[in-house]
Amino acid sequence: MGSAFSFLISSTEPIDPSLGDLPESCVASVLVYMDPPEICKLSMLNRAFRGASSADFVWESKLPLNYSSIIQRVQNFPNNLCKRDIYARLCRPNSFDGGTKRVWLDKSTGGVCLSVSSSGLAITGIDDRRYWSRIETDESRFKSVAYLQQIWWFEVDGEVDFPFPVGSYSIFFRLQVGRASRKFGRRICNSEHVHGWDKKPVRFQLSTSDGQQATTQCYLNEPGMWKYHRVGDFVVTGSVTPMKVKYSMTQIDCTHTKGGLCVDSVVICPVEFAERLKQRF
């Protein structure tokens, strides 16, 4: 009888509340202040956090305010996705303009990044195989680069008309002096055609549809390495009207030829990502 009595007493003792007892609406109100990676980790705690992590208002707060305008530019973007799945889809590279450009969101911050392939740039003499050739490579997200053998007049131009969210952005040209290849599993760089880049600097320029401009110049003197060369920065103050941005790199001193350069792409990203690019390749 004593054991039965003790069981009766213990069964009526209050049970301590746990995180699983929190209403999903309360959990979601907390998750909205966290970064996307943190939300994904917390979704694995229990059923309440898993349900709250799927709330539309949580993920809409992480998406750019004009994300619907970005989706309209993307090729084959699925319809009827929840906000969480829209965010996840936009964090993958999404092609537009015939596959010559890609846009994606940074997974941690939701910042918009954009890349333009060498095929989406206007390159002087690109159709003349005496000067330029297309090279397939797994070192480019577009799987090919434009390779300059030799030319007198070097000019690469491009432009993008895109609904950038409000913020500050930087533009970079991704270049490599020399031609990389693999031999016996090792990466090597062929410098056969490299010349002329130490005589005059390359000039980088940008201009925007609202009158912003920037100019920089530098010598291309680090063969065998992919480098992000900063063109300049621009600021977007409103996302109602798309911003048109023009960018170029030139070395048009015709007193000498230049060659041995790989042109991969142009990258546009939030200014705070500049340090990340410097750490790559």
TrEMBL record:
PANTHER family assigned to the protein according to its UniProt record, in alphabetical order: F-BOX PROTEIN PP2-A12 (PTHR31960:SF22), F-BOX PROTEIN PP2-A15 (PTHR31960)
Domain of life: Eukaryota
Name of the protein in question: F-box protein PP2-A12
InterPro entries named in the record: F-box-like_dom_sf (IPR036047), F-box_dom (IPR001810), PP2-like (IPR025886)
Domain F-box: 16-62
One protein family per Pfam: F-box
